[in-house]
Amino acid sequence: MIELAAAVSGSHAGFLTPHIRYLAILPEIVMLGGAVVLLALGSLVQRNLRVGVATAATVAISLGALGCSLWQWADVRSHGPFTAVDHAVVVDGFSALVNILVSCAMVLTALVADGYLRREGGAGAELHVLAMVSATGAMVMGSANDLIVVFLGLEILSIALYVLAAFNHRRAASGEAALKYFILGSFSSAVFVYGIALVYGATGSTNLTQIADFLSKNVLSSNGLLLAGMTLLIVGFAFKVAAVPFHMWTPDVYQGSPSPITGFMAAVAKAGAFAAFLRVFISSFGLVRTDWQPVIYALAIVTLLVGAGLAVVQRDVKRMLAYSSINHAGFVLLGLEAATARGVSASLYYLFAYTFMVIGSFAVVTVLGRRGDAAHDISSYRGLARRQPLLALVFAVLLLAQAGAPFTTGLWAKLQVVLAAVHGAVPLAVVAMVSAAVAAFFYLRVAVLMYSPLPAEGEAPGVQPAAEEPVPLYARAGAVATEPAVPAEGAEPAVSTWGTVGGRPLWTGIERSVADIEHLNAGLLLDGDPLTLALAGDGGTATSESRLAAGALAVEPSGAAPGRERMLVDTTTTGAGGGTPGDYSGGGEGVAVDVAGVVSAGRAPVPVLTAVAVGLCLGVTVVLGFWPGPLTSFAHHATLLFLP
Amino acid sequence: MSHAFPYLTVLVLLPAGGALGVVLLGALPGVRRVVLEWIGIGVALATLGFAIAMAAQFSTGTGGFQFVSDHAWASGVGVKWHLGVDGISLFLVLLAAVLFPIVLAGARTRSDARSFVGWMLLLESACIGSFVSIDLILFFFFFELTLVPSYFIISGWGYARRAYAAVKFFVYTFLGSAFLLVGILVLAFLHEHQTGVLTFSLPALEHTHFAGATGILLFLAFTAAFAVKAPLFPFHTWSPDAYTEAPTGGSMVIAAVMAKLGTYGILQFDLRLFPQASVDLAPLMLTLAVVGILYGAIVACAQRDLKRVVTYSSLAQMGFVALGIFAFTSQGLTGGVLLMFNHGIVTAALFLLIGWIYERRQTWQVSELRGLQAPAPVLAGVFTVAMLASIGLPGLNGFVSEFLVLSGAFLSHRWWAVVATFGVVLAAIYLLWAYQQVFHGKVDLANSRTRDLSWAERVVIAPLILVIVFLGVYPKPVLDRITPTVNGLVAQVEAATHTRQPAVARSGVAGAEAAASGRAGR
C-alpha cells in the first residue's frame, strides 16, 4: 500500500499527536473535503450555485467516496483489517461495507434532492453539502474504534441532520420537526456521553479494543458502573436508530422533514447508528453479552410491535413509513440480540437492503408530495395506478419488498435476521414475523389504494378516511348560447343532457332539464379523468370534453357540433356540504353531483434524476431479491473481517 | 437426470414469464383486451402441455422425487433452487395446469383484463412452484407469493365486501405463514447444530432429531400455516368471505388450487419432517377433521346462497382430506391425495357454473332461482354431474377418493370414520336441496329467460366433466402414480415412530380400488 501517512512526531512540542494514516480515512476525507469545497465554491460564486451543478458535484464526490470505500474493501480482503490514527479508527470489512452503503445512499439522495430542489425553487448547494457532512458522520461511526470517535461521528451526523430537517423553511412543520429532533437529539447525545464516561470509569478506556481486552482479563466484582454505562449507551443508540421507547421523535421528524431528507435520514442515520451500535456491543461488550442481551431483547420486541401496530393507524404516508422504519429497526435489533457472526452479517444485510428500499420509497413519496411537499395523505395515493401506472408499480414493488414479499431483498433480509434470532431467541423470532404480518397489511393497504380506481365498499377496518366524505362537485352547464340547449325563461326545456367521467356515466338526463339533475352519485372522480358534458336539443348536440382537476376550472369545449355556439362548463370543487357553492353565479343551469372526492391534480411530474435513483433502488431490490448470493457473501465477509 | 429437459423449472417460470409479457404488452397503446386474454390462455395451455408431457414421462414404479433440478441459488444462506415432483405433487401440478386455462377462458372479467391475466398467471407460477419445491425456503417463497396475486384478485375484481374479505384472507394466511417461516428456520438451525450444514432441503432435514417437545412445537408451527391455508376447522373463518366475495375465477383458483397448498404441506412436510409428532397429534387432527366435516356440512345445509353452500362443502371436503392423511394407512393417504385432486376439479366446476348462473341472473340466492332446468337444460345437466361428483356418487371421481379415505380411516381410527360418514349423508342433503330449489320447480318469469350454456362455455367446462367421469370409472392411472409415493411415506412414518398400519391396509389400495371400481361398475 502506498504510504501517504504524515507522521508528526511532535515530541518537541510536548504534545503527542498520533500518526495519521490518511488512507484509512480516505472515504471520509473525500466526502467531507468535497462538501467543504462545494460549500466554498457556492459562497465564492456571485449568484447561488445552480442546483444542477451542486448535484453533479455531489454525485461525483459521493462516487469518489464510493470508489475509495470499494478500494478499502479490496485492500482489507487482501491485506486484512487494521487500525489507524492511534487505534481510534478501524478499517475492516465492516467499516468498508458501511462506507459503501453510505456512499450509495448519498448518491441516491443527491439525485432525488435535485428534483425536489428544482420543484420547490431552492437553489444553492446547502442541502447537498449538509447531507454530505451528515454522511461523513455516518462513515465515521462505521469505522470508529473508540467511543469518543463514535460520539464524534454521531454529532457530525446529527447536527447536519437537524439543519436538514428544517430545510424547508416555507413549511412550519419542517421547523417544528427540526426543533423536536434537535432538543431530543441533543438530550440523547448527552446521555450517550454520560454513558461513555461511565464505561470509561468502569474499564479505564474509551478504546473499543482496550475495553474488550480489559473485560477479557478482569472479572468485575461489582459491575454496576459498567451496567449503567452500557444502559446509557443503549439509550443513546436506541434514540438514533429509533427503537421504542426512544422513537417519539421519529414520526414527527419524518413527517416534517423534506421528503428526500427523510429517506436519507431513514437510511443513513440508521445505518451509521446501527454500525456503531453493533460494533460497540459486539466487539467491546461481547464478553458481557448476557448482561445486555435481555435489554436488546425487550427493546426489539416493543420496537417490532409498536412500529407495526402504530403504522396501521396512520393516515399520512410519511408517518406510516416512519413507523415502518421503527419496525425495521426492530428487525435489525434481532441480529444484534443474537450477538453472533451470523447476526451481525444479517443485520448488515438488512441495513443494506433497507437503504435501497427506503430511499426508493421516499423518492416516490417526494414525487407524489407535489409542489409544496404536502400531499402525503393516504387518500392522494388512490387511483395512482391509473394516472401513473409505472410509478405506482414501482412504489408497490418497493412497499412489498419492505413488507418482505418473496423474491425481493426484503424477505432475504428478514429471513437472515430471523435465522440469526432462532439461535436462542425463538419467541423473539415469532414476534418479529407476526409484526411482519401486521406490517404487510399497511404496506398492502397503500398498494391496493393505488390500484383501486373506485372507492372500495367497506374499506379495510380502521381505514375509513374522513376526507372521503362526499365532496360535491358542481358542474354547471352555463352560458350556452344555443337555442335548443338552454331554454328561454320560463319555458319547459326540451333538452337532454348527459355527462361521463372517465368513461363512466355521470348522469343521463334524457328529457330532463339541466336544473332537475342534482346530487347524482358519480362515485369517485379521479383527477385527470376525462369529463364529458353534453347537451342535446333540437338543433343538435353540444359536447364539451375536458379533464377534471381539483379546484375551480373553466372548461373550454372541444367537440362542439359544427355551427353551434360554444358551451362553457365550469367545474368547481368545494368543501364538503351540499347546496350551491359560493362561487357559483352567473347564468346557466347548475348540476350538483356528489362525488366521493376528486383526487389530487393530475400527474405528478417525475424528474429524470429521481427516476434514475428510483430505478437504481428498484433494480437493487429486485435483482438481489432473485439473486441474493453476492450480497449475502458480501455481508458475510464483512463480518469475518470484523476486528474484535 | 441433469441433462434431461428441466420440466419443473419451465413449469414454474413459463406462467411468470407470460404474466410479465401480458403486463408489458398491455402497456402498449392499442392492444385489445381479447389479445391479452388469448395470450394468457395460450401461456396457460402451453404450461398444461408441459405438465402433461411431464406426467407422461413420470415413472410409476418409484416413490421418490423425479425430474429433480438442483441448483445453487443463495448459497450464502444455504437456499437452493431445488425442485422435484413425486406422486403426491404430480397431480396437484396437473390440477393447477388444468384449471388455470379454464379459469382464464371461462371466468373472464369485465375490467382491466391485463392485470387480471397477469395476476392469474403469476398465481399459477406460484402455485406450481409451491408444489414442486423441495427446498423449504423456496417452498415458503412460493407459498407466500400466492398471497399477493390472490389478494389483488379478490380486492380488485371481487363483489361487494371484497376489501374486507381480501384483508381478512391476507392477514389470516400471512399470520399463519409467520409461524411457518420461524418453524423452517428453527428446523434448519437444529439441523445445522447437529450436522454443521445449513440446508433447507427436505430430504436432508428429514434426519433431524428433536429433543422433548420440539418436534411437537415445530409441527404446530408448520401446521398453523397449513391449517389456515387448507382451511381446516377452526382456522377456516376467512374462507367463507374470501370464496364468496372473490370473482368467479378467484374462487375457483383459491378453493381448488391454493387451498391444496395447506393439505399438501401437511402431507409433504409435516409427515416427512415430524413423523413422531404427526402420529402423536393424529387424534387431535382427526378430531378437527371430523368436526370440520360435520360443521361444514351442517352449516352448508343452512345456507341460502349457492356460493356459500359450495364454500362450506369445501370445508367439509378438506376435512375428509385431513381425515385420510392422519389415518396413516395407505388407503387413507392415497384417498387424501386423490381427493385433493378431485375436490379441485369438482369445486372449480361448481364455482364456474355458479359464476355463470350469476352472470345470467345476477344473484346466488337460492330463493330467487327457480326452475332453471327448463330454460337451460345443458347448464342443469352439467351442474348435476358436478354436484353428484361432489356428493360422492359411485361412477364419478368423488366417490373413489371418499371411499378410500373412509375405508383407510376405518382401519386405523374406526370411530372417527364412522362419525365422518354422516358428512357424506349431509352432503347429499344440502347439495340435492340446493339443486332442487334452483333447477326444479315451476319456472317463473324472471328465470324463464335464462340463457343456456353457449358453445364456448360448453367447450370450457367439458374437460372438467370428462375428468370427473373418467376418474370415476377408471382411477387406476392416477392411483398407480400416487401409491408408490404414499407407500414410501407410510413406511417412513412407520419406521420413525415404530408403528404399523393394520395388516389389511398394508395390502395396499389394490383391494379398495377393486372394490371402488366394482361398485362403480355396477
SSE inventory with pairings:
The complex is a heterodimer of chains A (about 650) and B (about 525).
Chain A: H1 26-44, H2 51-79, E1 82-84, E2 89-91, H3 93-120, H4 126-143, H5 147-165, H6 172-203, H7 208-217, H8 224-241, H9 249-256, H10 259-284, H11 289-312, H12 317-338, H13 341-368, H14 384-387, H15 389-403, H16 409-421, H17 426-451, E3 471-478, E4 496-501, E5 504-509, E6 518-521, E7 525-526, E8 530-537, E9 540-547, E10 553-555, E11 568-573, E12 589-595, E13 598-599, H18 608-626, H19 629-640
Parallel strand pairs in A: 6-12, 7-13
Antiparallel strand pairs in A: 1-2, 3-11, 3-12, 4-5, 4-8, 8-9, 10-11
Helix pairs in contact in A: 1-2, 1-4, 2-3, 3-4, 3-10, 3-13, 3-18, 3-19, 4-5, 4-10, 5-6, 5-10, 6-8, 6-9, 7-10, 8-10, 8-11, 9-10, 9-12, 10-12, 10-13, 11-12, 11-17, 12-13, 12-16, 12-17, 13-15, 13-16, 13-18, 13-19, 15-17, 15-18, 16-17, 16-18
Chain B: H1 7-27, H2 33-57, E1 66-74, E2 79-85, H3 87-106, H4 113-132, H5 136-145, H6 147-157, H7 162-195, H8 202-205, H9 214-229, H10 238-245, H11 248-273, H12 275-280, H13 282-301, H14 306-326, H15 330-361, H16 377-391, H17 397-412, H18 414-439, H19 445-448, H20 455-473, H21 476-497, H22 503-506, H23 509-521
Antiparallel strand pairs in B: 1-2
Helix pairs in contact in B: 1-2, 1-4, 2-3, 2-4, 3-4, 3-11, 3-15, 3-21, 4-5, 4-6, 4-11, 5-7, 6-7, 7-9, 7-10, 9-11, 10-11, 10-14, 11-14, 11-15, 13-14, 13-18, 14-15, 14-17, 14-18, 15-16, 15-17, 15-20, 15-21, 16-18, 16-20, 17-18, 17-20, 17-23
Short précis:
The complex is a heterodimer of chains A (644) and B (522). Chain A is built from 19 helices and 13 strands. With 644 residues, chain A is α+β, with helices and mostly antiparallel strands.
Description:
The complex is a heterodimer of chains A (644) and B (522). With 644 residues, chain A is of the alpha+beta class. Chain A folds into two domains: 11-455 and 603-640, no CATH class; 471-577 and 584-596, Sandwich (Immunoglobulin-like), CATH 2.60.40. Helix content of chain A is 57%, strand content 10%. Chain A has helices at residues 26-44, 51-79, 93-120, 126-143, 147-165, 172-203, 208-217, 224-241, 249-256, 259-284, 289-312, 317-338, 341-368, 384-387, 389-403, 409-421, 426-451, 608-626, 629-640; strands spanning 82-84, 89-91, 471-478, 496-501, 504-509, 518-521, 525-526, 530-537, 540-547, 553-555, 568-573, 589-595, 598-599. Chain A has a five-stranded mixed sheet, with no helix packed on it. In chain A, strands 5-4-8-9 form a four-stranded antiparallel sheet, with no helix packed on it. Chain A has a two-stranded antiparallel ribbon with strand order 1-2. In chain A, helix 1 (26-44) packs antiparallel against helix 4 (126-143). The two termini of chain A are 23 Å apart. Chain B has 522 residues and is mostly helical. Chain B has 23 helices and two strands. In chain B, strand 1 and strand 2 form a beta hairpin. Chain B is globular, with a radius of gyration of 22 Å. The interface between A and B is large, with 39 and 39 residues.
